[in-house]
Design a protein that fits this description.
Growth Hormone, Chain: A
Length: about 400
């Protein structure tokens, strides 16, 4: 159930990616205008995280999930109805805002129920199952688009939202009991947020989480044009390539779930970030001197697969630092994740449609910042004083 709730974001993003060029043609707009529908969805997710997470610390996880999934059904139906790209852009914002309930609260529920290696395993499984969503989404999206056009994608997503609502209603008990909830209203929520944001270790891990996803979203938003227009792949072959990359996340997430009993989550996180930096750097080289299709596909696979080591461990470590206010901590992480994605998505589009350089450079910069955040945020007080003395 938690995996389905968390899968709303990848499904809502990945299912309509193969239709980007076709949507631009149908609406008579540029690629950047179509990418803006993704950006507004991500902005909605970011703001929704900030609103819903802290409210769940006050009112519980289950009520917020029920309201969020119900309103998401309506917003998704309106997306399917959109007569112009402007209306679609507006409705995508509301779809993202309400869909944030599943994303932010699935993490909070796990944090309510587990900690340490047990939490890392659960988050690894969550990432693994969510890795399957991008595997299925472009293939399902391509099939639906072929049969009904891009609007059919949103009708399918509305059906998924109905399943989520029924599942929460029937299967998901409250994980945040009344005696543990915040009771001081807005002032308490602000105090919780201040406490979370003043924790350097939390910020380091949350930064790795957000900028790890920054790598992913640079790839997601630019890959339809890079692989289809620069490299000449068909919609079908693009969907296959996208699926192969998503399977990389599944593989590394499964490996992470088995390794956390023997290797510290922080060590696994650093391995994932270093790998992401290395393969993104090689991708920049390929984009400048080529690009060559085989090199692009192989390097993308390894860069994206590194996310399986980054996300689960960064989530475990960050929420471990914000356990008393897991909803607020999860909200900050989600807002950073999707807020950054909202900036990155149009940014890579502004670099032009006929080159892979903007995608590769954005991936590299995001990976470097994510690694730097962990290194700086987790230094011991002694290390920090030595640095400050110099």
């Amino acid at each position: 159930m938690l995996a389905l709730l968390a899968a709303v974001a990848p499904l809502s993003i990945d299912m309509y990616l193969p239709a980007f060029p076709r949507m631009a043609e149908e609406f008579g707009v540029s690629a950047t205008a179509i990418q803006l529908t993704l950006t507004t969805f991500l902005v909605g997710l970011a703001i929704g995280n900030l609103v819903i997470g802290p409210l769940s610390d006050r009112f519980g996880r289950r009520p917020l999930l029920l309201v969020g999934t119900f309103v998401s059904i309506i917003a998704t139906i309106l997306c399917a109805w959109s007569p112009t790209v402007e209306w679609l852009t507006v409705f995508r914002f509301f779809q993202g805002f309400t869909g944030a309930a599943g994303v932010v609260l699935s993490r909070a529920v796990i944090s309510d129920r587990a900690r340490g290696a047990a939490a890392a395993k659960l988050f690894s499984l969550l990432v693994l199952v969510n890795g399957v969503a991008p595997v299925i989404a472009p293939l399902l999206g391509g099939a639906v688009i072929g049969l009904t056009g891009w609007r059919g994608v949103f009708w399918v997503l509305a059906g998924v939202s109905v399943l989520m609502f029924v599942g929460v209603l029937a299967l998901l008990p409250e994980s945040h009991p009344a005696e543990l909830r915040s009771t001081g209203g807005l002032s308490t929520m602000i105090a919780d947020a201040r406490e979370v944001l003043s924790n350097k270790r939390f910020l380091g891990y949350a930064g790795a989480f957000a900028f790890g996803f920054g790598v992913m979203f640079a790839y997601i938003s630019a890959s339809p044009f890079v692989l289809q227009e620069v490299h000449g792949l068909s919609t079908t072959w693009y969907s296959i390539a996208f699926t192969a990359n998503a399977l990389g996340i599944v593989v590394t997430s499964g490996a992470n779930a088995k390794l956390v009993d023997r290797v510290r989550p922080e060590a696994l996180l650093r391995i994932g970030l270093v790998s992401m930096v290395a393969f993104s750097a090689l991708l920049v080289v390929d984009a400048v001197v080529g690009p060559y299709l085989w090199a692009t596909l192989v390097l993308l696979w390894f860069a994206v697969a590194s996310l399986g080591l980054v996300i689960a461990n960064a989530t475990t470590l960050a929420l471990g630092e914000a356990r008393r206010a897991a909803g607020t901590g999860s909200a900050v992480m989600g807002a950073a994740q999707f807020g950054l994605a909202a900036v990155i998505s149009p940014l890579v589009g502004l670099g032009g449609e006929g080159t892979a350089v903007p995608m590769a450079v954005t991936m590299l910069v995001s990976a470097i910042i994510g690694l730097g955040g962990v290194v700086l945020g987790t230094r011991s007080p002694t290390e920090q004083s030595v640095t400050e003395a110099h």
